[in-house]
Amino acid sequence: MSRNAWVGARAEKQLAIGGGQPPTCERMFTGIIEETGAVEGIRAKAGSIAMTVRAGLSWRELKKGASVAVNGCCLTVVQITRRGSFSFLQFDLLRETWRRTNLQFAQPGSLINLERPLRSDGSLGGHFVTGHIDGLGHITRLVRKGQDRLLEIAAGPQVMPYIVLKGSVAVDGVSLTVAGVQRKGFSVWIIPHTWRSTALRKCEEGAAVNLEADLLGKYVEKFVAARN
Predict the structure, then answer these.
(1) What CATH number is attached to the domain comprising 143?
(2) Where residue 224 falls among pLDDT bands split at 50, 70, 90?
(3) How many domains does the chain have?
(4) I need a surface site. Which of 30, 32, 112, 197 has the fewest CB within 10 A?
(5) Domain limits at 56?
(6) What does the pLDDT look like over 182-212, one tens digit per residue?
C-alpha cells in the first residue's frame, strides 16, 4: 500500500470513529500562520508523546508554558532550546491528542504550521480559532487552477454540520473560506501567498488534515438547542 493510500485509510478510520477535543486551551488564535517549523524529533514517553519542532529567530521571545497552535492544535511548550539561529520547541502530547490529530503522521523533517495566540491588542486577520480540533479530514482532490489551488476535503459528521458556504474553517490551523459544500465534504481555494507561507504546500491527495469548524456555528447550535 502506498503512503498516500495508507494515510487516506487511517483518515477514513478516524472519520468513522468521530473527532475529539485536545486538552482545553484558554488561548485564541486567528488561523494566520506565522511560520512553518519543521519536526526535529518524536519520541514516546510514559503516557505521552514528546515532539520537538525547529522554529526560526522570531520565536526567541517565546517562554516555557506558552501556548502555540501546531497544525491548528493548541499545545503547551514544555521546553525551549536555542541553538544558533533556531529555537527548538518541545511539546508533550497526550496520546488522545496524538490519536485525534494528524500529528500522528508527522515525521522528522515534516513541515508544521505554527501560530502564537492572539494578543488582546492584536489584529484579527482570519477568524476565531480555538485550537480544539473537531476531527480529521482527508484530501480527496488537489488541483492547480491558474495561480490558485483547489482543495477538496472529505469530513465526518462531527465537522460537516458547521461547514457553511462562504463561511470559515481552519485546515491544519490555516483560516480558509469554504468555496463549496457537499454531503460528505467541502472545498476551499488556496491563493499563492497562503500556499507559499504554510505547510499546505506539502500536502497531497490522501493526506490527513486537522479540521476546526467556525466557533460561531457551535454557539448558534447550542443556543437553538437550549431554546427548543
Answers:
(1) 2.40.30.20
(2) confident
(3) 2
(4) 197
(5) 3-115
(6) 999 999 999 999 999 999 999 999 999 999 9
Evaluate whether residue 169 is within a structural domain.
yes
Within 8 A by CB and 6+ apart from 223, the residues are none
Collect all residues with Cβ–Cβ distance below 8 Å to 225 and sequence separation of at least 6: none
pLDDT in tens, 167-186: 999 999 999 999 999 999 99
Kindly report the pTM of this predicted structure: 0.85
Instruction: Let me know whether 180 and 88 are in one domain.
Output: no
Which ranges of 66-182 would DSSP assign to H, the alpha helix?
A: 95-100
In this structure, the number of other CB atoms found within 10 A of the CB of residue 192 comes to 12
For 225, the enclosing helix (H) or strand (E) is helix 215-227
- Return the sign of the alpha-carbon dihedral for residues 20, 199, 219, 128: positive
| Look-up of cell digits 460561531 | 216
Task: Single out the residue in 46, 80, 115 at which a domain terminates.
Answer: 115
Query: Same domain for 94 and 151?
Result: no
pLDDT digits (tens, 9 = 90+) for 41-64: 999 988 899 999 999 977 888 899
Cross-strand partners of 218: none
Under DSSP, the state recorded for 158 is T
Cell (9 digits) for 163: 461547514
| Maximal CA-CA distance, the chain | 59
DSSP state of 40: E
In angstroms, the CA 69 to CA 54 distance is 14
Q: Give the span between the Cα atoms of 90 and 59, in whole angstroms.
A: 13
Examine residue 27 and state whether it is found in any structural domain, yes or no.
Answer: yes
